[in-house]
Amino acid sequence: MKGMIFAAVALVLLSGISAFGQAEQIFKGKVCLGPEGRTPTTINGELSLPCTVPHPKLGARYILFNPDTKTTYYIEGHPKPKSFAGMRVVVVGTLDTATGTIHIDDMFRGLPAKITQASSVYIDCSACPRGLAVAWKTAFEEIEEWGRFDINPDPKKADLIFIFAGNPYLGDYVTRDGPDTRPVAIKTTYMDVVDPQTGQDLWGDSRVYGSFFVARATHDLIKELKLRMEEESQSNPAAILEQQHPRKTTPSLGN
User: Fold this and answer.
1) 64-68, 148-152, 183-187, 219-223: lowest mean pLDDT where?
2) Same domain, yes or no: 166 and 103
3) Which of the four pLDDT bands, split at 50, 70 and 90, describes residue 31?
4) Domain housing 169
5) Using CA atoms, how far apart are residues 197 and 187, in angstroms rounded to an integer?
6) What is the DSSP letter of 224?
């Protein structure tokens, strides 16, 4: 009898090791609510999941769906997966192959292919009075030094528009008749990466540095985008975690 108990305990321990002793991996895909959302559909030739579930079943879990590999995983360990619902994300975590569940160490919003595949940008400092005007010059110098994008003087021929402004982007780059006429306090420097064809905001962030540090804010915003693009091309989970949490000791990846 004792032998059977010891054997059962050993089996449980070994199962735990096989499930949780896996090396960290990088997963990419779209966060959706399952299980209803696990049935992919084709919309405009692109495979996608219906991530909005009007009446989810009790106990429904969030999943990660990779449209390239048509693979679906359950996800757990992140405190707010709902905030990523419908978004393309990059996940660092370990996979429990027995249950198809990713145990998340870190998760952040991924960049659209429109950004990662772009080769040219147009810089627009929208309604940039006084100290905010330095954003254009700083952005030009930072992008040239980066060397990732060609700077195109024609917004209609550029792959992306980098907009710097003192107010949040309204999504109206294509439809508006002229410059943004809202008052500008120059307290916050906003950067938005916009699709020149549709005006869609592909990525954006801001820095509340005040009017005397617009150049520093512009530098930091471009640096953040640069890190995001580097993360998209990373295959090393420890490197991504180090970029996300430079003061945090990265976990061991095992053998």
Assistant:
1) 64-68
2) no
3) confident
4) 114-232
5) 30
6) H
Query: How many domains does the chain contain in total?
Result: 2
Residue located via tokens 């990523």: 84
| 119 and 225 fall within a common domain | yes
Could you please report the per-residue DSSP string of 170-209? -S-TTT-SSS--S----S-EEEEEE-TTT--EEEEEEE--
- CA separation for the pair 164, 221 (Å, rounded): 10
249, part of any domain: no
Q: What is the CATH number of the domain that holds 121?
A: 3.40.50.10070
Rounded to a whole number, what is the distance in angstroms from the first to the last CA of the chain? 36
Tell me if 14 is assigned to some domain.
Answer: no
118 and 223 share a domain?
yes
Give me 102's structure tokens: 């990713």
* Cis, bond preceding 168 (omega within 30 deg of 0): no
* Contact in structure between 88 and 110 (CB atoms under 8 Å): yes
The DSSP annotation for 53-116 comes to: -SSPPTT--EEEEETTTTEEEEEES-S-GGGGBT-EEEEEEEEETTTTEEEEEEEEEPPPHHHH
Helix 237-244 vs helix 214-233: crossing angle, to nearest 10: 160
Q: Classify 50 as helix, strand or coil.
A: coil
DSSP string, 109-161: EPPPHHHHT--EEEEEETT--GGGGHHHHHHHHHHHHH-SSEEPS-TTT-SEE
Q: Provide the whole-model pTM.
A: 0.69
For residue 48, what is the domain's CATH number? Answer: 2.40.50
224 in a structural domain: yes
